[in-house]
Amino acid sequence: MSSGALGQGLSFSIGIALAGRLDEQPYRVYTLLGDGECDEGQVWEAAMAAAHFKLDNLVAIVDRNGQQIGGWTCDVMELEPFTDKWQAFGWHTIEVDGHDFTQLIDAFEKVKTIKGQPTAIIAHTVKGKGVSFMENNPDFHGKAPDAEQVELALKELAD
Fold it and tell me: How is the chain split into domains, by residue range?
């Protein structure tokens, strides 16, 4: 599901996880959030609900790149202590380098062993990684590159 307003995806995922429990289905629900999206109160209300219902079949992957459409998250709305907040809301947390596939795979394997609580995988990433003019540049959060920039980006990524 591609949610409309920010923050709705986690709530929707909770509904799917609860339905899976009611239907005695073994599946696990994965949802992706941006760290800037965590400015939304709905995210934290959903986080409380997921912990309350002990949804160990729910995994939230949070792209922790420090940017959102309005700039750096620390300037728009400070999120720290970010991992501690998820833990305080009753979630098991795993922090990984979001660019390291081995760490990500290990985290996805680990969540299968967590019982009685949802899991948040905090994936530390660099927005635009590997593209000189995009890397850590909030201007490209919601802006597409022009044709010349696409050519340069593809060249840099191929090297």
Answer: 8-125, 130-159
